[in-house]
Each structure stands twice: as C-alpha cells, then as structure tokens.
Amino acid sequence: MKLRYFFNFSFLFELFLFAFTMYLSIGVALSLLQKAPTQTSASAEGLSAWQFIIMFIVATVILLVILKYFKKPWLIQGLFYLAIIEGLLFFSQAFFDWPNFLYVVAFLLLSWAFYRNIFIHNVIIVLAVSAIAVIFGLNFMPSAVILILLFLAIYDFWAVYKTKHMVKMFSGIAKAKVHFSLIIPQSFKSLFKKTKTVSPSIEFMFLGTGDLALPAILVVSSLKISQLTALLTALGAVCGFVFLYILFITQKKRAPMPGLPPIILGTLLGFLAYFLIV
To answer: For the chain, what are the domain ranges?
Structure first.
C-alpha cells in the first residue's frame, strides 16, 4: 500500500481506460436514444436475466469445447474479430449516419491491422466494449442486470479459485494470440510494442473485457431511471476497480484473481447511492 503503486503509469492508464469505458457507454447510449428513441425504448424489456444467464453458460461451454478439442487458433481469432467488428459497427452507427459509419469502422480496422500495437489494441477494445455494453444495457431493466451481475460475480470467483477453468480459458485464448482484454504495460514506451510480443508476465497486466462490459451494462441500463443514476453507477464501478487494484497489489503472491466481485460491489453501491441521495 505504498503511494508509488498508485502514482505509476500502469495504474493511472488502466484507471483512465476503465473510467473512460464506463462514461463512453453512457455517451453511446444517449446518442443512440436521441437518434432512434422509439426503437430503443421498444426493446427496453426485451430479455430476461435468465435468458442472459443461459446464453452465457452456453457460450462458455462452447468456448471451452473449442479450446479443448478443436485447438484451432483461427477459430478463436475469428470469434474475437467477429465480436470486435460487431461492437465497432454499433459504436460508429451511434455517432455517424450511412455510409459514414462504414468509413469510420474501416479506418479503425485498418489502423488496427497495420499498427498492431498495444495502444491501438486498447482503443479498439474500449470502443467495441462500450458499444456491446449498450446493446445489452438497453435491452435489460436494472433489476435484471443486478441479478445477472450477482450471478456472474459468484461464477467469476468460483471459476478462478475453485475450478480454475477461467485461468485455463484465458491461457488458451492467449496461446491463439488473441487478447480479448485491455493490455496494460508498465511504461508509456511499452504502449507501442506489438501485441504479438505480449504475454502474461510482470511487464504487463490484463483486465478482461467482461470486467469492463458487465458493469457498463448496468451503467447503461440505469439510464432508464435517470442520467444521474447512470453517472453515479459509473462512479461506483470506478471505485470498485480501485478496490480490485488494492486487493491485487496486496496479494502475498501475485496471481490471477477474479475481477468481477469487487468491481460489481462498487457498481451496485454506486447504483444504490442514487436512491440514498434522491
């Protein structure tokens, strides 16, 4: 718990990316609501919490089967790129009309393909994840999202510390040269290293996209109550991330740890803060 752990590039950069994702998701949602208020409000109660949980379990099983039996890097890469392209398309459509949003997506994908460095990778992840969070957030009521988050927080703890299949899944995806996470280097200079040189080590930290997207889903869903609710929920998520970081650096031995429980705790406290204030 020394100050140097908080006033260093890696923590401040990761904190900025996390907070930016939370508040960017609000911006994407508000822009979309302004462009198509009727369409988005019509889907406000489109899915239930149990439908999401079932989809999540099915998707996890499919991914584990692919990693264990097929072991085809191109298959994992294909799923990764498909999710990213979907997120970028949705993000661009929120701010640009046809066909300009296609030019934006093309520019982002070409930059990603040409440079292939950590900085561009993180930009792409943040934009895509913020949009994916909006897709789900606008389709769930806050009560349903809270149920989902509680389930996934328990699952995350169980999957990392008990069955450890989350760690194996991360390693399998990393072997396919896919980094479906934020990559946090220890220095500004390392931001421009090629992603192919990245591996789990003391030089890099990773924050999974689920740790970004899931609190952002509640942030977006909170807009159904008010913008203030969404802003406070986002602030709570940021505080939860700081709590996660404190838990991480105070480990006796550095090891992978579940990110969702502390992040979701902060997110829910931020959500409840609105009702305490108002």
So the answer is: 3-35+47-277
